[in-house]
């Protein structure tokens, strides 16, 4: 089993978008996949409940009820962490996972929050001798905007790898509304989005680490 934690204490940075779409990638490839929702809003669980019967199943767990360990035989587990999660709780969660994805939006506020959070978490990972790898994803980015260039400079200066960019696409809104992921939508509509996921998934699976 390979487990992934999607976390950032800043709200609205796209944690659920990343968690749900990553879950569908694995589901499409026939892997037994679980999505554990640790957020009181339970957006990931609502998404799971909205999934069409025609799509491959994804196990959904309300992590607030105490069950955060999926059934034996589950191949991939994604944890959707809430905003305002204190660093002590994050440190405990990191002990459970192999990969930590930190989404960051191209805004000054988001970058400041991310810098403090990442510095704290990197220190805790090292102190606990955790095997988890950490990486940052630029989310809802417009590559032709000055803010994106500033975000890239910021991310590349951090102590963790910058592993990819997810553009600001309406396809993610459509996917969220219908309980699917972009990997389950018509390829002609989502090809640019799917292309952006390649380096992220390669990194999550340990195939390549970008610098």
TrEMBL record:
Residues 4-179 form the CobQ/CobB/MinD/ParA nucleotide binding domain. SUPFAM superfamilies: P-loop containing nucleoside triphosphate hydrolases (SSF52540). CDD domains: ParAB_family (cd02042). It comes from the Bacteria. InterPro entries: CobQ/CobB/MinD/ParA_Nub-bd_dom, DNA_Partitioning_ATPase, P-loop_NTPase. This is Chromosome partitioning protein ParA. It comes from Arenicella chitinivorans.
């Amino acid at each position: 089993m390979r487990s992934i934690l999607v976390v950032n204490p800043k709200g609205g940075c796209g944690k659920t978008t990343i968690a749900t779409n990553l879950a569908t990638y694995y589901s499409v490839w026939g892997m037994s996949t679980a999505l554990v929702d640790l957020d009181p809003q339970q957006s990931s669980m609502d998404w799971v409940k909205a999934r069409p019967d025609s799509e491959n199943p994804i196990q959904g767990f309300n992590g607030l009820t105490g069950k955060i360990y999926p059934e034996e035989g589950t191949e991939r587990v994604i944890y959707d962490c809430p905003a305002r999660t204190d660093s002590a709780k994050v440190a405990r969660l990191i002990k459970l996972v192999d990969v930590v994805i930190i989404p960051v939006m191209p805004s000054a506020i988001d970058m400041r929050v991310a810098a403090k959070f990442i510095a704290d978490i990197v220190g805790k990972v090292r102190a606990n001798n955790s095997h988890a790898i950490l990486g940052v994803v630029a989310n809802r980015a417009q590559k032709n905007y000055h803010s994106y260039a500033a975000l890239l400079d910021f991310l590349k200066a951090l102590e963790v790898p910058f592993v990819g960019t997810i553009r600001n696409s309406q396809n993610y809104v459509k996917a969220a509304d219908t309980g699917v992921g972009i990997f389950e939508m018509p390829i002609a509509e989502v090809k640019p989005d799917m292309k952006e996921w390649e380096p992220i998934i390669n990194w999550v699976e340990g195939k390549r680490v970008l610098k």
